[in-house]
Amino acid sequence: MKNYLSINDIDSLSSWVKEGIALKNNPKEFKDLGSDKTIGLLFFNNSLRTRLSTQKAAMNLGMEVIVMNFGSEGWALEYTDGSIMNQGTSEHIREAAQVISQYCDIIAIRAFAGLVDKEKDEAEEVLNGFKKYASVPIINMESSVGHPLQALTDAITLEEQTFTNHPKVVLSWAPHSKALPHAVANSFIQMMQKQNAEFVITHPKGYELDTNITKNSRIENDQEKALENADFVYVKNWSSYTNYGQVIPQEKDWQITLKKLGNAKFMHCLPVRRNVVVADEVLDSKQSLVIEQANNRTYAAQLVLKKILEGLK
Ligand code: CP
User: Fold this and answer.
1) Which CATH class is domain 7-146+297-312?
2) How far does the centroid of ligand 1 lie from the alpha carbon of residue 307, in Å?
3) For 197-245, how does the pLDDT look when each residue is reduced to its tens digit (9 = 90+)?
4) Most buried residue, 19, 62, 136, 251, by CB count within 10 Å?
5) Gap between the Cα atoms of 278 and 264, Å rounded
6) SS3 content of the chain, % helix, strand, coil (to 5)
7) Which of 46, 157, 270, when mutated, tests ligand 1's pocket best, judged by the most ligand atoms within 8 Å of its CB?
């Protein structure tokens, strides 16, 4: 595999999930695979889990790791070809990507949506700029439209926790005080479309996601109805896609409580705002999988790195 940019780079989700679980059971099995290789982790936005789990994954494979908070410490990058750079940007992606490719064998990038200009966000100028001008493989650590490391993690967690042949999995929108991107929800939906499961998306009217992503997935605007007999409830806020980046006030409270959860397991990518997105009683219950999900981030990242490293041999 050359790059890991979206969930569609996975050729067989079921075999990847099995391989991820095997790595979890024996994380040091391939401890020399990356012994002469360096990964550069470039963060244009904040992170806890992605930053530490990807470092841990690389270390488990014997790699060296360079981390840069590019958003706050790097030169402001220019992405437009032919631009006269007499304004705010200091370095063109053409040079930056080639230079970093000399220091690193793999480059991983986090660059969120700005949520102001849909067309600009969907062009994924940071991720695609590195893909175009770097000479080494690129990993998406959450871009404007996708978070495929999180979705692979979620597939591993679902597999570990599923005890029926055809589980019901609900993706529920939840409230948040800030406008958040669509990336986690998008990749979770794309991952669920590859699963043998009953999958339902529930959100208030006005929070429809990109129909190119949701495709034929069932959408139920009545949260109570959607949650009936769920085995897993994956909760995530996102801002409006139609009124791009806007927060639309709701009359009903979409926060997840134990009563709404029923007997289902609770999933969330973290970080989560307690008692806004989800009640304490859920997060502190045995039904919450959030800590194990965060644990599985390491093995999802390790699997992706392993596949890329094998391609470099
Ligand atoms: N879930 C996730 O990506 O967490 P971080 O933003 O902390 O990396």
Assistant:
1) alpha beta
2) 22
3) 999 999 999 999 999 999 999 999 999 999 999 999 999 999 999 999 9
4) 136
5) 14
6) 40, 15, 45
7) 270
Could you report the per-residue pLDDT of 121-171, keeping only the tens digit for each? 999 999 999 999 999 999 999 999 999 999 999 999 999 998 889 999 999
In angstroms, rounded to a whole number, what is the distance separating the alpha carbons of residues 143 and 110? 6
With a 6 Å cutoff on the Cβ, whether 269 touches ligand 1 is: yes
Cα–Cα dist 5/151, whole Å = 12
Point out the ligand 1 atom lying closest to the alpha carbon of residue 45: 6
Domain ranges of the chain: 7-146+297-312, 150-293
Token readout for 274 is: 């307690």
Residue 178 alpha carbon to ligand 1 centre in Å: 16
Q: Any idea which fold 150-293 has?
A: Rossmann fold (3.40.50)
Classify the phi-psi angles of 46: left when phi > 0, otherwise alpha if psi is within -120 to 50, otherwise beta.
beta
In single-letter form, the type of residue at position 188 comes to F
- Assign residue 59 a region (left: φ > 0; alpha: ψ between -120 and 50; beta: otherwise): alpha
Q: What angle do CA 66, 153, 290 make, to 5 degrees?
A: 105
Name the pairing type of β-strands 168-173 and 138-140.
unpaired
Task: Give distance in angstroms: CA of 300 to centre of ligand 1.
Answer: 13
Bridge partners, 140 (sequence order) = 109
- In one-letter notation, the amino acid at residue 193 is Q
**Same CATH topology for 7-146+297-312 and 150-293?**
yes
Task: Report whether residue 49 contacts ligand 1, using a CB cutoff of 6 Å.
Answer: yes
For residue 258 and ligand 1, the question of a CB distance below 6 A is answered with no
- Ligand 1: does its nearest atom lie under 6 Å from the Cβ of 236? no
